[in-house]
Amino acid sequence: MKITSVLRLAISLAALLPVLVQAQPAIEHVEPGFWWVGMKSDKLQIMLHGKQIASYTPHINYPGVHISGTHRLSNPNYLFLDLQISTATRPGKFNISMQQGMQQFAIPYEFKTREKTAAQRRGFGPADVILNLMPDRFANGDASNDSLPGFTDKLDRADASAGRHGGDLKGIRDHLDYIASMGYTMLWPTPVVENNQQTYSYHGYATTDYYKVDARLGSNEEYLQLIAEAKKRGIGVIQDIVLNHIGDGHWWMKDLPSKDWLSYNSEFVPTYHARTTVSDPYASAIDKKNYTQGWFEVHMPDMNQRNPLVANYQIQNTIWWIEYAGLAGIRADTYGYSDPAFLTEWSRRVMQEYPHLTLVGEEWSDNPNLVAHWLRGHKNANGYVSHMPSMMDYPLHDTLRKALVAPENLHSGFATLYEALINDQLYPQPSAMVLFEGNHDVSRLYSALDEDLDLFKMAITYVATMPRTPQFYYGTEILMASTKHRDDGAFRQDFPGGWASDAVNAFTGAGLNAKQLEAQAFVRKLLNWRKTQSAIHSGKLMHFAPQDGIYVYFRYDQKRKFMVVMNKNTAVTELAMARFVEILPARAKAMDVLSGQAFELTQKISVAARSVLLLEVH
C-alpha cells in the first residue's frame, strides 16, 4: 500500500514537470541551405525563418564550428546565426539544435566538399565571345513546365510584351550544339531564379526566391545539367543576378524580417534614375539617396544594403551560386543603383573567393566617366574604391550604332567612332570591358542600322575585333528586327525554331531568307575564326583617322597582324597604302579572312562599296 502511494505521488509530480518535447516549429527557410569547407572566408551567416524561431537558442556540436553570434530582429520569425568555421573543419552533416526551455528540435545542415580547382575557376575575357539570350524566348524544350500550379503568370505566346512563352533550360540545352557551332564560348542567360510575379515575370529581373531556379524554366538540378553540358562544348555560363531589387512577389514581402529590410523603411519611393549622383561632386544628398535607395518601380522593392544582414545575405548568395553551379562569371544588373559601399564589399568578397573569375556590371550610360567609376583600379576623385574587373561598354556600343548610320564628315560618322577610343585611357583594362552589339534592353542591331546588311557586317566585325570582350544577342545572326523606339516585346521575340510549331527554324536554316542565311554564315565564320587569334585577344591596336568615308585600324602582336578596313561609300573607293607604312611591312600582302580574296598592299587597293575587309597581313 505504501509503495503504491509513492508511485502515485511520483506520477502526479511528474505530470506537473516540464516535458522535453521533440516538436519542431514550421521552419520555412534555411538560407543558404548548405555551404562548403575550405572557403577563403571562415565566416558564414545562416538565416532561419519560421514561426517564433527567434525565441529559440541555437547550439552546434560539430568539430571546428561554433556560433559566434546571433541576430534577432523586430520580426520574431527570423533568427540569423553567425558561424566561425575552422580551417580544420571537415565536410559532413550535422544538426543545428534549437532549444527553448525544455523544448528542442534539430535543423539538419551540411558542409560540402569543394571541387579541387573551385577557387581558381577562370572567368571570361577577350578570348571569349558571349551569347546573351532570354530563356523564356529562346526555345521550349519541355512543354510540361509551361504552366504550373502556384504560378499565376500563365503562358501566352500571343502577348509579345509581357506574356510568358515557355522557353526553358532544356530548350537551351537542346541547342548547345548550335550555340557552339556559331563560335560562342560563353553563355549569358537573363536571370534564371524564381520570378513568381503576378504578371510580366518572363524576363527574370524580379526575384522571388534567391536560391531557387524558376520552375517554369526547370530546376536547380537542370541548371547544373545545362552548365555541365555547356562545359563539354567549351562553353562557360555567366549568371545574371539582380542586387538592387527584388520582385514584390518575393516570399519576404509576406513576412518582412524588419522594417528596414527594404529601402525607405519598406515604403514605395521611386528612384528618379539620377545615375550621375554617385560620383557628381555637386550632387545633393537627397538626390544621392534617391538614386540608390529609391525603388526601381512599384513592383520591384529596393534592397536596403545599408542593413548589414541584407548586404551579407546578398554577398553569400552570389558566392553560393558560383560555387554550387561552377559559374564562369557574374553579370550584375542595374549595378550602380545599389549602395556604393555595399558594391565595394560585394565585389571585394567575391573576388577574394575567386580571384580569376569575371564580374561585369551594367551601368546603362553613354558617359565613360560614369562607367569607369565602378572599375577596379580606377582612381576616383571622391576616393571610391571598387573591385569590379569589368563593366558593360555602353558608351562604345552607343557610339558604334550611331556612327554607322550617320553621314560622313569631320564631326560625324566614323569620326565619332575614332574619337570614342580616347576614352580607353579611363579604363584600367579596356580589353576586359564587354562590348555588345545588342541585348534584351535595346533595339535589334539590324533595325538600328536601317536594315542595311553591309552596315550590319561592319558592326559585327568591329565588335569582334576591338580590344574588348565581345557579346552578341540571340537572333542577331539571323537579322531579327524590332522597333527602333523602346519596346521590350519587340526586342525579345521568340527565336525561330525554338518551338515545335514554328514555320521557320533558324537552328537548321530551314525557312530563312537569303539575307538571313548570309548573315548567319558571316557571323559563324567570323566568330569561329576569332577563337584562335591571339592578336585579336591580346594584341595591340593602332587606328588611323577616318578619311573619305573609310576607317582603318590594325590589331597585331608578335605573331600576326590584321588590318580592318570599313568603307561606307556607295562606290568602290581606292585606298592608298602609303599612309600605313609605319605598321605595314615592305611589299606587304594580305588575304581577306572573310572572303579569301588576295591583296597586294604596296600602292593602293580597291575597297568595294559599303564593305568591310578583315585582312591578314603578311
List the helices and strands and how they pair.
Blueprint lengths: L1 H15 L10 E5 L3 E2 L6 E8 L6 E4 L4 E8 L5 E8 L6 E9 L2 E10 L17 E4 L1 H4 L30 H6 L1 H6 L4 E4 L3 E2 L14 E5 L6 H13 L3 E7 L42 H9 L14 H18 L3 E5 L6 H14 L4 E4 L6 H5 L17 E2 L2 H12 L8 H7 L13 E3 L8 H4 L4 H13 L3 E5 L14 H4 L22 H17 L3 H5 L1 E8 L2 E7 L4 E7 L5 E4 L12 E4 L5 E3 L3 E4 L3 E7 L1
Parallel strand pairs: 2-8, 9-10, 9-18, 10-13, 13-14, 14-15, 15-16, 17-18
Antiparallel strand pairs: 1-3, 3-6, 4-7, 5-6, 7-8, 11-12, 19-20, 20-21, 21-26, 22-25, 23-24, 23-26
Helix pairs in contact: 7-8, 10-11, 13-15
Short structural description:
By secondary structure, this protein is an alpha/beta fold.
What proportion of the residues is helical, as a percent range?
10-25%
**Segments where pLDDT lies below 50 for 5+ residues?**
1-7, 9-22
Largest sheet, in brief, is:
8 strands, parallel
What would the average pLDDT be, to the nearest integer? 95
Give the C-alpha Rg. 28 Å
By secondary-structure content and strand pairing, the structural class works out as alpha/beta
**How many individual β-strands?**
26
The count of helical stretches stands at 16
Shape: elongated
Distance between the termini: 115 Å
Write a concise keyword list for the protein shown above:
disordered N terminus, alpha/beta, elongated, 26 strands, 8-stranded parallel β-sheet
Describe the 3D structure.
The chain is an alpha/beta fold and 618 residues long. 25% of the residues lie in helices and 22% in strands. It contains 16 helices and 26 strands. The strands form 6 sheets. An 8-stranded parallel sheet has the order 16-15-14-13-10-9-18-17. A hairpin with a 5-residue loop joins strand 5 (65-72) and strand 6 (78-85). 44% of the residues are buried.
